[in-house]
TrEMBL record:
InterPro entries: Cation_efflux, Cation_efflux_CTD_sf, Cation_efflux_TM, Cation_efflux_TMD_sf, SLC30A9
GO cellular component: membrane
Primary location group: membrane
Superkingdom classification of source: Bacteria
Transmembrane segments: 93-115, 127-145, 180-201, 207-228
Gene3D superfamilies given in the database record: Cation efflux protein transmembrane domain
Domain Cation efflux protein transmembrane: 26-236
Annotated membrane topology: Multi-pass membrane protein
Location of the protein in the cell: Membrane
Taxonomy of the source species: Bacteria, Bacillati, Actinomycetota, Actinomycetes, Pseudonocardiales
GO biological process assignments: zinc ion transport
Protein name: Cation diffusion facilitator transporter
Length: 342
């Protein structure tokens, strides 16, 4: 993903506002990516390098990804309505999943076919390899700027949450940052593979190296697509909120004077920084009906102030002695729930 990759991060940081400036920046990034794809494609045609053509497909896939990420950012910001009472936050995961599919379909498959053709087709001479070296060097210089920007973004956001970068990427409910970082990393590795393919073809005169580099690029893109697809699948299905948030909410509820026990705690990510909470709580038996109602309203309000991610909160009074409910909780979590919150 060429130099415009960091612009998606800028837009992601301003999720609620998609004004003309941000839109123009992302559109400009798309045009730049298209330009680099065209540059690689022309260089591939001139040199006859399958690896360069595979990298051109890589840049095309990144361009589609930019479009899909922009779509995700815009559509997921729409407010809740009658048909979607919990909002459109999960649209971000759907379009990010489509981005993973585009990486595989337009990048990995094309690169693989180019590699197979280079290995099994008629022998082709490599022409003007210097053109390939220059294009790859220019692309690498631009990619490293974007990659460093992505790394800096991840470190900043991880530090804000008191996490290590790897842990932050694992638990983040925003697929945008992860997508950009993986794409930039894959882009740098792909350029090194293409350089190796072009160089070894130049030195040995054998197109086998070029074909192998193209297949290696295809495998790289397939791995990235699978990783992104798996992450977004979990979020689309309905993943639990960040474990740190779940534990904090549990402790907070248990510390309230009206609460005797937290019987069950269900969370689901409904969008980036949006979490649905359903807590089944055993309240003090001394509370009357009116007091219980006021307590539920107060707790919900205080939870929203304490934990900004909580978007929808449901509190259900239940007796902790309910054996059927206890059995369901244990069947879902085993001893993890009890041990994780003691």
């Amino acid at each position: 993903m060429a130099p415009g990759a960091h612009t998606v991060l800028d837009v992601a940081a301003d999720q609620e506002g998609h004004g003309g400036g941000s839109t123009f920046t992302v559109v400009l990034a798309l045009l730049v990516n298209l330009g680099i794809a065209a540059m690689k494609a022309v260089a591939g045609a001139i040199t006859g390098s399958a690896a360069l053509l595979a990298e051109a497909a890589h840049s095309v896939a990144d361009t589609f990804t930019e479009v899909l990420l922009l779509t995700a950012l815009r559509r997921s910001a729409r407010p809740a309505d009658v048909r979607h009472p919990f909002g459109y936050g999960k649209e971000r995961y759907f379009w990010s999943l489509m981005a993973a599919v585009s990486i595989f379909a337009s990048g990995a498959v094309f690169a693989f076919l180019q590699g197979i053709e280079a290995l099994t087709g008629e022998r082709t001479e490599q022409l003007r390899p210097t053109v390939g070296y220059v294009v790859l060097a220019l692309a690498f210089a631009m990619e490293i700027v974007s990659w460093r920007r992505a790394i800096r973004q991840v470190r900043t956001e991880a530090a804000a949450e008191g996490r290590r970068p790897r842990e932050y990427l694992r638990y983040s409910d925003d697929p945008t940052v992860r997508t950009v970082l993986l794409e930039d990393s894959a882009a740098l590795i792909g350029l090194l593979l293409a350089f190796a393919g072009v160089g070894l073809h130049h030195l040995t005169g054998s197109a086998v190296w070029d074909g192998l580099a193209s297949i290696a690029i295809a495998v790289l893109l397939a791995v990235v697509a699978y990783s992104l697809g798996r992450t977004n699948k979990r979020l689309l299905i309905g993943q639990q909120a960040d474990p740190n948030l779940v534990r904090a909410v549990y402790r907070w509820l248990r510390e309230q004077p009206e609460v005797t026990a937290v019987v069950d705690l269900l969370t689901m990510v409904t969008g980036t920084d949006h979490v649905l909470l359903c807590a089944r709580v055993d309240f003090d038996d001394a509370l009357g009906v009116a007091e219980l109602e006021r307590t539920c309203v107060r707790l919900a309000s205080d939870l929203t102030e304490e934990f900004a991610e909580l978007d929808e909160i449901f509190l259900e009074p239940v007796p902790r002695t309910d054996q059927e409910l206890r059995a369901r909780v244990l069947a879902r979590y085993g001893d993890v729930f009890r041990r994780g919150h003691e």
